[in-house]
Amino acid sequence: MRRRVDGVLLLDKPRGITSNGALARVKHLYAAEKAGHTGTLDPLASGLLPICFGEATKFAGFLLDAPKRYVATVRFGVTTSTLDAEGDIVATHPVDFGVDALRDALRGFVGPQLQTPPAHSALKLGGRPYYEYARAGIDIPRAPREVVIASMELLDWQPPDAVIDVECSKGTYVRTLADDVGRAMGCGAHLFALRRTRTGTFAIDAASSLAAVERMDDASRMALLLPVDAPLAAIARLDLDDAVAAALAYGQRPCTVAPAGRYRVYGPDGRFAGVAEVASGQLAAIRLVDTRKACA
Prior knowledge:
- With 296 residues, the chain is of the alpha+beta class.
- The chain is built from eight helices and 18 strands.
- The protein has three domains: 7-66 and 201-230, 2-Layer Sandwich (Pseudouridine synthase); 68-199, Pseudouridine synthase (2-Layer Sandwich); 235-288, Archaeosine Trna-guanine Transglycosylase, Chain: A, domain 4 (Roll), CATH 2.30.130.
- Strands 1, 2, 3, 4, 7, 10, 11, 12, 13 and 14 form a ten-stranded mixed sheet that branches. Strands 15-16-17-18 form a four-stranded mixed sheet, with helices on one face.
């Protein structure tokens, strides 16, 4: 029997399973009617995978759009067909640079840039994911996309492997970044391991492993859930009086003196009501929760 569950679980996804596979197992554990994850991690990768249940799924997009942080292990001197450790080896080259040269190169990747998505990715063309074309040996156009690398810090260098802390915008492919750095160093590289450590305001330290969640009883699992408004912590709060809250719920655009911008809004009882935007002195709903559900 499925039940209504509202909230956000911070899951530490293990290596070896897909994000959808982890989602399915967690959804089953909670017997939840509705759930979704907030940003795919490849089977090769581990780390933070926020999972939204029920009313929280309405705000999953805020986490999809949030900046991410990773610890990436990049192996230099070996390029692969998928740009990561799961692909076939394409070429090998000697690794003959020092740590100072690597640090200099990493600094050159910080900032906005155009990145070409990998051929083996889940992006779609004509309704088919890129990886299907790649597996069939079909070369398709892959338009570069603008991404932002906020920081790249070398944590460890044990040739041929570098451990790098990467903070980046949504849509960044870290394996493409690893390949680009390898090209810059003149010897090629691929992503050997990846761990996501942050999504927006959420950090891996607060996450629970899948094995731990599986061992818990139901009450303990429910206690792990963050409130529905947790994905919106970076957005300013706006408290509404009875009249404005009611008008917003009925699809009206009540007047407000709040500055222009986007807000997470709360009713007079302090309960979360959704996300709204102020423009030209009026408040307009973007996404509201079902107030009949327990979203406190």
